[in-house]
Structures are given as C-alpha cells and as structure tokens.
C-alpha cells in the first residue's frame, strides 16, 4: 500500500512539474445557463460534471481532481468573451463549449489571440457541439478540438438516407439564421443536388435564433409547399417548438434533424411523432453497447432524474482528455494538444479517432428514429430513440476533405 501511495504521489508531482496545478484541474464550461437555451446548456453542464465525477472517482487526472466551472454566456458571443476573461482571471486554461457556432467562433478568435500573446500560458478549447465546418477547415486552430461531427459530415449522412427514399420527391429546408444554420442549408442543397438531382427543394428558409415563439406560420408554409420531408439543424428551444408545431399541424412526412433529442423535444412531440422524427447522432441509449456503458447511463440518469443521457460526445471528450494527459505526463494545454492529435479511443460504440490534420473527431454515427418500441425511454416517457442494423455509419465513411492548413507551435 505504501508503494502504491508513493507511486501515485510521484505521478502527481510529475504532472505538477509539467505545468499542472497541485490542487484541481478546472474546465470552464461557457454555455447558456439561462434564457430560452438554458435547458440545453444546463444538460451539457450536468454531463460534463458527471464525466468529471467518474474520472475523479478513479483518481482524477495526474492526481488532480477535475472541476467543471459553469459560466453563463446567455448564448451571446460578446458575453462569452466576458465569461472567458473571468475564467482566465481565475487561472482556468481549459474551455468547454458547444451551444452556438457564433459563440464558438468568438472563442476561437479570442483563445488564438491569447495563446499567441501568452506563450507558456495557453488555453485549450474542447468543442463538444459547435459544428460550423469552417472551424476544422480554413479556420482550424491548434488549440481547438471538436468532439462532434461537423454540419457537413452530418448532412452527408442524412442525404445518403434520403437518396434511398424514392417516395421523397421534395424537401423543405429550415434553420436558424446564423453561421451554423447557413452551413446546414448550404450542405443540404449541395448534397441533394449531387445525390438526388430529381428531388425538388421547395423551400429554403432561415429564422431568427431563439426569437420565434410559435412556428405555426413557418409550418403552414411548409405544408403549403407540398414538401414530403423537412430538413432542419435547429437545436434547443427552436428545435422543440418547430417539431411541436409540425406535428400539431398534421405534417406527416419525415422530419430529419440534427438535434431531435434536445431536452424537452420528446414531451413536445408525443407519440404522434414516432416513426416520423429522425436524428443523426453519435449514440443513443438503445444501441447495443457494453455492460459498463449501460451502467454509466443508469448511474447518470439516477444522479440526474430530470435529464436523460444525451451528449455521448462529452463522455468521449473527457476520456480522451485523460488519455492525452496521461500520455503527455502533463496537464499543460500545449502538451495535451499534441497528445490528442491522432489519438484513438475505443468508445462503447466503436473506435473514435481525433484527426491530426484538422482536430476533427471521426466516430460512428447513427440515424436514429423516435420510437415507441424501446428499452429506454426519455423524459419519463415510454418513447425513445432507436437505430436499426442499417442505420450505422462507420467513422471512415464520415471523413471529408479538409482545407485546414494548421499553424503548430514548437514542442
């Protein structure tokens, strides 16, 4: 026992010497914790906290306990920079964010400037959900890593599914009016033109982010257009309210989403949406997996009974973060960043790889359908998300060419 304690102490001292604080390793969670998108941010915060709790129970990282510190950015880029500065002033050198590519864009620029001005005091950005493709293409940055598939990768999978649906003759594209929504729309148009030149795009519309309280007028236009299917990248309240309005108005075609599993969506959609609403995801709670992952999901949902396990990518991010720190023998952001490049992780749903050339995760993706035939329901309902045998997309099939020309610091 004394030898084990001595070894642990030596490891902790080695990490401290390599740039880690001796007490806690803090990650600043900068996302909305109030307002219309507060539930989305709060759900993400809970999953980061739980992932840290599991790591801490196993000894932490380099002998340090991981602490997630929440900062409410109110989904505003300028407010996000204020919160980033607060985190920096508190000595935090890791940032996690995912809700809103406009926010991620501001953080990437600010962190890049900070790191260039403060060598040896760098900050690393763990992006778990902001999926504007430019972040791992022309705007790639060494200290930014994305643990979610980007908008183009997801749309490639969605349109591969549409390609095989001969009864879908027309689609309506609707999204949020900012960089992410525009990227989704552009990807939908280019993919559909290439894969289904016979298909008609009968609508391509953007709406204000987080401002629409009733999507009925939008849905009436969709129904009037004669669209057979809807494509949307909406998330948070915009996702929930759009789908609720579509189901209530009697739209009966497929609703193809990125974030159909957003908190509150199941209750809003109800049983009438089963078999109709689909989402492209990195995992759902009814996939066949390991006993350990089943236990992880059970424990999370017991700890947070009002939330369902949703952000599997946070599980991946935390585990790969620990692996990188262990590999580097350091928790200094630059050392962890180099260790993350090209890293492979055997996740509960298959191998995950962090691309070295642009810091974009490659992972299995699944087309999931809202179903009333599930082992695990969501939001205390007997309804949940399910995927069939043909709904899995392997990681290598999601990889796209990149325009990233990354500037790397000296080791």
| Gross morphology | globular
* Beta-strand residue fraction: 15-25%
The CATH architecture of the largest domain can be given as 3-Layer(aba) Sandwich
Structural class: alpha/beta
Largest sheet: 8 strands, mixed
**Gyration radius, in Å:** 21 Å
Low-confidence stretches: 1-21
* CATH topology category name of the largest domain: Rossmann fold
Give an overview in words.
This protein has 411 residues and is an alpha/beta fold. It folds into 2 domains: 2-149 and 290-362, Rossmann fold; 152-281, Response regulator (Rossmann fold). Helix content is 41%, strand content 19%. The chain is built from 13 helices and 16 strands. The chain has helices at 2-17, 38-57, 77-89, 101-117, 151-163, 179-195, 216-225, 236-249, 265-269, 291-303, 312-328, 333-340, 395-398; strands at 24-31, 65-72, 94-97, 124-127, 144-146, 170-176, 200-207, 229-232, 255-257, 277-281, 344-347, 350-354, 361-362, 365-371, 384-386, 392-393. The strands form 3 sheets. Strands 6, 7, 8, 9, 10, 14, 15 and 16 form an 8-stranded mixed β-sheet that branches. The longest helix is centred in the N-terminal third of the chain and has 20 residues, at 38-57. The chain is globular, with a radius of gyration of 21 Å.
How would you describe this structure in keywords?
411 residues, alpha/beta, Rossmann fold, 2 domains, 13 helices, globular, disordered N terminus
């Amino acid at each position: 026992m004394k030898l084990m304690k001595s070894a642990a102490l030596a490891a902790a001292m080695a990490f401290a010497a390599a740039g880690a604080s001796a007490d806690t390793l803090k990650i600043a969670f900068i996302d909305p914790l109030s307002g219309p998108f507060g539930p989305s941010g709060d759900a993400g915060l809970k999953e980061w906290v739980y992932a840290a709790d599991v790591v801490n129970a196993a000894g932490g990282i380099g002998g340090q306990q991981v602490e997630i510190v929440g900062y409410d950015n109110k989904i505003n880029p300028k407010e996000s920079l204020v919160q980033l500065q607060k985190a920096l002033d508190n000595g935090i050198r890791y940032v996690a964010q995912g809700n809103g590519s406009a926010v991620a864009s501001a953080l990437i620029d600010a962190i890049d400037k900070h790191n260039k001005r403060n060598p040896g005091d760098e900050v690393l950005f763990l992006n778990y959900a902001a999926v504007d493709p430019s972040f791992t293409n022309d705007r790639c940055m060494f200290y930014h890593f994305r643990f979610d598939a980007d908008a183009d990768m997801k749309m490639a999978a969605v349109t591969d599914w549409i390609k095989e649906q001969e009864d879908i003759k027309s689609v309506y594209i609707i999204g949020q009016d900012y960089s992410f929504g525009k990227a989704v729309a552009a990807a939908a148009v280019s993919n559909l033109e290439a894969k289904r030149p016979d298909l008609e795009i009968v609508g391509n519309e953007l709406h204000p982010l987080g401002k629409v309280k009733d999507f009925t007028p939008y849905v009436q236009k969709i129904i009037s257009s004669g669209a057979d299917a809807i494509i949307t990248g909406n998330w948070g309240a915009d996702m929930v309210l759009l789908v609720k309005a579509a189901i209530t108005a009697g739209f009966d075609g497929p609703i193809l989403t990125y974030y159909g599993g957003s908190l509150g969506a199941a209750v809003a959609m109800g049983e009438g949406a089963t078999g109709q609403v689909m989402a492209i995801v990195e995992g759902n709670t009814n996939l066949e997996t390991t006993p350990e992952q089943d236990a992880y999901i059970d424990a999370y949902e017991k700890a947070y009974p009002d939330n369902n396990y949703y952000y599997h990518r946070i599980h991946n991010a935390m585990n790969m973060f620990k692996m990188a720190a262990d590999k580097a023998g350091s928790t200094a952001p630059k050392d962890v960043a180099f260790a993350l490049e090209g890293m492979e992780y055997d996740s509960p749903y298959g191998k995950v790889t962090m691309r070295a050339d642009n810091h974009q995760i490659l992972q299995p993706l699944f087309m999931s359908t809202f179903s009333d035939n599930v082992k695990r329901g969501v939001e205390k309902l007997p309804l949940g998300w399910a995927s069939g045998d043909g709904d899995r997309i392997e990681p290598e099939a999601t990889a796209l060419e990149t325009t990233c020309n990354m500037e790397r610091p000296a080791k």
